[in-house]
Design goal:
Layout (H helix, E strand, L loop, with lengths): L3 H31 L5 E9 L7 E8 L11 E8 L18 E8 L21 E3 L8 E3 L15 E6 L6 H17 L5 H6 L9
Antiparallel strand pairs: 1-2, 2-3, 3-4, 4-7, 5-6, 6-7
Helix pairs in contact: 1-2
Length: about 210
């Protein structure tokens, strides 16, 4: 039987290896976003270490305005790599909560970028600040108080979706799950998020 000490050692080693993999994904993701045509510009990367585990890594940047007259960004794009958070263990009923995930969030400039206090779902697939925007059997969440959600194009709304980290194993996985859906939702005013995210490994809320 493995000793407790060895179990802890293995866990720490796995976290270290996960960090290396996340850094590689972020580097590839940044390169792809900067060449995606949506005017992405890196703002910051943050390691969130409020426990012995490196439980989240946040990577965010601005999206350029499509108007030549506007100097301010159109919005903010955030990728939060969540290995474990205490919120994952809060509640039950959403088995997908208990796995490493990538939260992909877009927020308009006026709203401000998503932060990790808001960009999460707990073990019930819930969060007091957000609502499941497309109903059951869909993948998109957004601000509960967003009154324009059904009247504005997707680049004028704030939203996020969630992809299991284990689904990102190649350059193609990055394109399909983390870049192409974002580009489609931000550039195509007629985009249907259920169809766009249905082509990805985004987690589906079944309610």
């Amino acid at each position: 039987m493995e000793s407790v000490g060895h179990t802890i050692w293995l866990s720490a080693r796995n976290l270290s290896h996960a960090g290396v993999e996340i850094d590689a994904i972020i580097k590839a993701l940044q390169d792809k976003l900067e060449n995606s045509g949506i005017g992405f510009q890196l703002v910051q990367t943050d390691n969130l270490e409020d426990s012995y585990a490196l439980n989240a890594h946040c990577f965010s940047g601005t999206i350029a305005s499509t108007s030549q007259r506007k100097r301010k960004p159109q919005g903010y794009l955030t990728y939060s790599f969540s290995l474990w958070r205490d919120k994952d263990d809060a509640g039950d009923g959403w088995p997908e909560a208990r796995q490493a995930k990538i939260y992909v969030g877009y927020a308009t400039f006026d709203v401000g970028s998503w932060d990790n206090d808001d960009l999460f779902l707990d073990g019930d697939a819930s969060n007091p600040a957000v609502t499941h925007l497309r109903g059951k059997n869909s993948s998109l969440w957004g601000w509960s108080e967003d009154e324009n959600f059904n009247t504005e194009p997707w680049n004028s709304r704030s939203w996020f979706y969630v992809v299991p980290l284990g689904k990102i194993n190649s350059q193609r996985d990055i394109d399909v799950n983390l870049v192409a859906p974002v580009v489609e939702l931000l550039t195509n005013e007629q985009a249907n998020p259920d169809e766009v995210l249905g082509k990805t490994s985004a987690l589906v809320f079944k309610g």
